[in-house]
Structure formats: C-alpha cells, structure tokens
Specification:
- The protein is of the alpha/beta class.
- It has one domain: 3-Layer(aba) Sandwich (Trna Endonuclease, Chain: A, domain 1), CATH 3.40.1350.
- The chain has helices spanning about 5-15, 40-50, 75-90, 110-120, and strands at about 20-30, 55-60, 65-70, 100-105, 120-125.
- A five-stranded mixed β-sheet has the order 1-2-3-4-5, sandwiched between helices.
Length: about 130
C-alpha cells in the first residue's frame, strides 16, 4: 500500500473493522524466483522477498477471506494487480475459506467498474 492510499485505508477500517478477525499486510503470493538454479539459499530468499507480488491486505472474516487492493485513484494497474493477486492466492491459499477480491478506493472510472464486474471482483468506495 502506498502512502497516498493510507487515508482511503483508514476510512475503510473506520467503517468495516468491526467484524474482521485478522488483517495481514503485504502478503506475498506467486512463485517469483522458483527457477533460480544453483544459488546460495540466502540469496534465493532475498531474491524472492524482493520480487514477490504483495497483496495490500488479506482480511479474514468468519466465513471468507478478502484479497484487498487499496488505491486512492485506481487505474488499469489496480485492476490488473487485484486480478493477479486473486489468481496467485488461489494456487496456494493460506486460509481455507472462500476468497473474494475487493478494490477499496475513493473514486472509480466507470470503465474500471465494468472490468471489476467482468472478473467478479468487488468494489468498496470509502
């Protein structure tokens, strides 16, 4: 999550924090660096840490998990990131509950809302 996104995240927490069981930040997903060959394990770990894709927030509720991308003024990049995080998390879910993808933002271009709907991703404007 970038510094300009913090106020959006704060408004989200003010409104929705009541039923959250746990929030995990910068959750690494994907297989970055799995084909590193014969290199030192310490270097391999550092490479994975730097190149991993990171979910802004993973929110656990009683019956589901939310993969959350937070963006003050989201563009195409935010939609692509959220779709990618959702796909990668599905390959190796850390919490065995149904998963939903959410974009949390303050404003949204109508074309991006169309893309969210197409990919069954959800929107929370705060």
């Amino acid at each position: 999550m970038l510094r300009p996104d913090f106020p959006v995240w704060g408004r989200f927490l003010d409104k929705y924090a009541g039923t959250i069981l746990q929030i995990y930040y910068d959750v690494r997903v994907g297989n970055a660096g799995t084909q590193l060959g014969e290199i030192d394990q310490k270097m391999a770990n550092m490479y994975r840490a730097v190149t991993a894709k990171r979910i802004d927030a993973l929110i656990e509720y009683d019956n589901e998990v939310w993969i959350v991308e937070v963006a003050a003024g989201p563009g195409l990049r935010a939609i692509g990131q959220l779709a990618t995080y959702h796909a990668l998390y599905a390959q190796d879910p850390k919490i065995p509950k149904p998963t939903l993808a959410y974009l949390v933002c303050d404003t949204l271009d109508p074309d991006l809302k169309t893309a969210l709907d197409l990919y069954s991703m959800r929107l929370l404007q705060v």
